[in-house]
Amino acid sequence: MTLRVNDAVHVIELDHRTTLLDLLREHLALTGSKKGCDQGQCGACTVLVDGRRVNSCLLLAVAQEGREVVTIEGLADAVGADGDLHPLQQAFLDRDALQCGYCTPGQLCSAVGMLEEARSGQPSVVTDTERPTDAPVRLTAEEIRERLSGNLCRCGAYPHIVEAVQEVVVRDMAAREVTA
Ligand code: FES
Ligand code: FES
């Protein structure tokens, strides 16, 4: 099969039962995405497929042919100049939003997907039901906690993770007001 990962095309022969997570880790040596539960419950394996966050342990690799996969290793490259971290990666560092770091790649990929979901107006269970359905959702701390609730952190770094995401959300909004 052919798979595009972090802007590189890979032609791979594999057992058709291989998950996307195992393909990334075992065949492409992209070990940033972590295997926690291997059952879709912890979010450690989260990557982006066509810009949407997914649990890669639950997807068959062969079903991703023709799609664009971005892992934690490609997050920085996806947004800017060589060597620049993604703003969320930088905010996690600045805010000390990790301890052991095992959940961090999944938290970061999930946060990137979440920002896009909120921008495009996708509601969560805590979103005000009275708002116009196509308006961007304001990412309050409550929204961030709810939207990242599929990503577990055994170290309990949650308060700093929420702060780091909020910092990026606020900067993002300020930048959009300047360019509007
Ligand atoms: S390893 Fe995929 S959700 Fe836990
Ligand atoms: S930082 Fe250790 S599991 Fe989250």
From TrEMBL:
Pathway(s) of this molecule: Alkaloid degradation; nicotine degradation
Domain 2Fe-2S ferredoxin-type: residue ranges: 1-75
Cited InterPro entries: 2Fe-2S-bd, 2Fe-2S-bd_dom_sf, 2Fe-2S_ferredoxin-like_sf, 2Fe-2S_ferredoxin-type, 2Fe2S_fd_BS, Aldehyde_Oxdr_Iron-Sulfur, Beta-grasp_dom_sf
Keyword tags: 2Fe-2S, Iron, Iron-sulfur, Metal-binding, Oxidoreductase
Classification via Pfam families: Fer2, Fer2_2
The keyword Oxidoreductase is assigned to this record: yes
GO molecular function: 2 iron, 2 sulfur cluster binding; metal ion binding; oxidoreductase activity, acting on the aldehyde or oxo group of donors
Domain of life: Bacteria
PANTHER family attached to this UniProt entry: OXIDOREDUCTASE WITH IRON-SULFUR SUBUNIT, OXIDOREDUCTASE, IRON-SULPHUR BINDING SUBUNIT-RELATED-RELATED
Protein name: 2Fe-2S iron-sulfur cluster-binding protein
